[in-house]
Amino acid sequence: MTLVCQEHPKTTVQTPLAADTTSTAGTAQAEQQQKEVCSCSSCSPFRLVLHPLLNAWGFTTGSMQFPCLLLLILPGMWADPEGSQKLHLFQTFIFYNSNLVELSVWATLEDIIFAALQNYTREIIYLQPWVFSALPADEWENLQNLFRIYVYDFILILQNKARLYQIPYPFVLQCKTGCELYPNGSYTKFYHLAYNAHNFLSFDVDSSHWKRWQESEVAVNVERELSSFIGFSASLQYLLNITCIDHMKRFIEYGRAALERQEPPVATVFAHMRDPAQLLLVCRVTGFYPRPISVAWLRDGQEVLPGPGLNTSTILPNADLTYQLRSTLVVAPGDGHTYACRVRHCSLGTRSLLIPWGSSKVALGIGVAVVVLLTVAAAFIGTVWYYRHRC
Description:
This protein has helices at residues 24-37, 45-54, 137-164, 217-228, 230-254, 256-260, 359-389; strands spanning 85-95, 101-109, 112-117, 124-126, 171-181, 187-195, 198-204, 209-212, 266-275, 278-288, 294-299, 302-303, 310-312, 316-317, 323-331, 339-344, 353-356.
């Protein structure tokens, strides 16, 4: 696979940029990087974090159509315990051929994307106004220099190993790493790798042990090489055990207003006639933040229990960093019951949104009646005026 690496190939590569963690490349790379960039006393812990860390996660957005590459999910590892705080780093490499690599890198605090790496210049882009001030300027400069060196060397290593293991192009490497802090002071950390949208390897930070998620020859070779780079594993342990949490606390402090903002939901109810025997009631809820929300259907004031006729979508993001979802309920037309959609969200306090089905139809009926009466009245007045002035 593309993870193996020990030497730095001399070949030059024409590529936008890349940085991955799905390879032993990352390992040797990390050690080489530390020698070249972090051998001085000014080497900051944070640049060490994002070094192997930022090459650690991956979502892929590129022109290539690899299905389902947006999520790396290892079973049971992505629960969101209530009250936890999360700093995550994502990275994706799309290797189109031996000369072209496309890279996407970004960092999230909770669900806010606060920084990214520019694909061609390899400069850090600050996506929130509070991000840059959270760390000293020299730390950001060190971090940016680190990325430029690391990304360039790392791509060379990965492509060298692609040749060594005869990996067919195109292929995609994805990484996700980070830490989560809980209210009781405990925390978890993780480092996961994927190859072509399949779980590949993960690193157990506490035991300093690499684990395979597949039994392919590539995975076996890469795991063996990564396990041999003790220095890289030690760096990951330090970065994820100490630096990640420390810097997440700084980001949370500076980004508190953004993290604690609340946007109330807007809900609408409408219906779609599936067939003469089925009416689909739809409750669309959008524009809310933060993400947790409760949406339920009420029949005659009582909550409708889960069943085949009730379906609620997952919570999906809007472009303005708010969320949306839909909940549908299948009913029989004219069944004599009243229905309403109830929405609960922290921005509403102890109140709830209650949108009854039928109110819009009543309003429409009243509006039509008014229009009809006005039309009749106008016609009557016009007739009277005509006859009075006819002579």
